[in-house]
Every structure is written in structure tokens, then in C-alpha cells.
Amino acid sequence: MPKVLIVHTNVTRYQGTTDPTGLWLGESAEFVDELQKVGIDYDFVSPKGGFVPLDPRGMKYTNESILTIYEQPDYVQRGLVATLKPSDINPADYVAIYYTGGHGVMWDFPDNPELQTIAREIYNHGGYLASVCHGIAGLLRIKYDDGQYLIAGKKVTGFTTAEEIIAGKKKVVPFLNQEVATQNGAQFVQKRFYKPFAVQDGQLITGQNPFSVREVTKRLIPALQK
User: Fold this and answer.
1) Which residues form the DJ-1/PfpI domain (predicted)?
2) Domain span at 97
3) What is the total count of domains within the chain?
4) In sequence order, what DSSP letters do the residues of 47-72 get, joined into one string?
5) 183: domain CATH number?
């Protein structure tokens, strides 16, 4: 059965600081929760493979469903301890790729050529590219063979500049997702800060912030079930 590939970060800190970051747990766990409800299989990959750190700030935003996934030994082993490396992945095995967030992704998602190739191949055989919050960083610089950005001319969303300011991280992150998306030709759309919101443009499905995971799955899962 075709599977979904979930991408986690390996970055443990805001670069140049001792401030820890990593995966925002809910952005992965809520997604897995929805896949499990409908019996869609999944794998986890990270830029380096192996260990995935958790963003401590994200642990303040857990609930019963998130913690239930976090307590599953399979989730811990495959998603946090021993994620696959990009070289382990055959894109033909997947019908979608989903980029999770947490500020760590800002450093190891945007310029990873192996992940870009995987995503491009999934997209080219009719699969879906999805992200939530900072996870859009993994989509920003994917290019077609002719050099055109894949997001050019498409509606996308992600963690906004306003939300970055509210989070107090505007001066720490290496770039602003909203600015780069616009620079690379996308039509960046958004709702009021920290409100659930997702947008679909063909095979591209993106969510604005940590509270938008299930808005992404509401669009992705029906598409995969067709």
C-alpha cells in the first residue's frame, strides 16, 4: 500500500545560540493520529536520519491525542530515535510527503538536495506535497528541471512574519518563510495569527501554524483516498 513520508528535523538549537529547538511534537503527532484513524501507512525521514530532538516550547501545547501518539513505542522508535535517511527512501513508494515544523527546520530543510529530489519525484508522479507552519521551509526552494520554483504561481501558507514577531524569533531565524515564498513567486495567503488555516492548490497543501495540522489533513486524506 502506498505510504506518506513525514519529514522531521535534526536541529537541536537555534544556530549561534544555546536556545534549544527541534520538532514541534504536535505537528507530527496530530498528523499521525489522523493517518492512523483511516489506516494510511507512513514512514519518517530526517535530513541526517536517526535522532530527532523535540522543541521544548512545543511541549507546552500538547493534549490527549498528541500524548497518546507520543506514548506509542513505534512512534518513538521510528519517528524520534531512528528516522530514515534520505538515501533510504524510494520516492515511488509514497503518495505524499509532509514537512513538519519547529524552528529547527529553518536550518536543515530548505537546502537539502536529497529531500528536494524526493519531493519533486513524488510530485511528478501525481503525489502531494504538504507542510505545516515552519515546515514550508522544505518547499520554498524546490525547483523544476528548468530552474523554475515549484511554488511559483501557487497559493501557499506557513508561519507568517507577524507570528514570527509574536514568537520573538524574527531576529534569530535565518530568513522569513513569508518573504522567501513571495520572492520565489508564490501567492502567500494567511488568516489571523495563531488561528487554524490551510490552503490547497492542486497537489500542494500547506498549513499556517501549529494549530493547522488537522486543517491540512482535512484536505490531504480525502485526496489520497480517491
Assistant:
1) 30-220
2) 3-225
3) 1
4) SS-B--PBPTTGGGG--HHHHHHHT-
5) 3.40.50.880
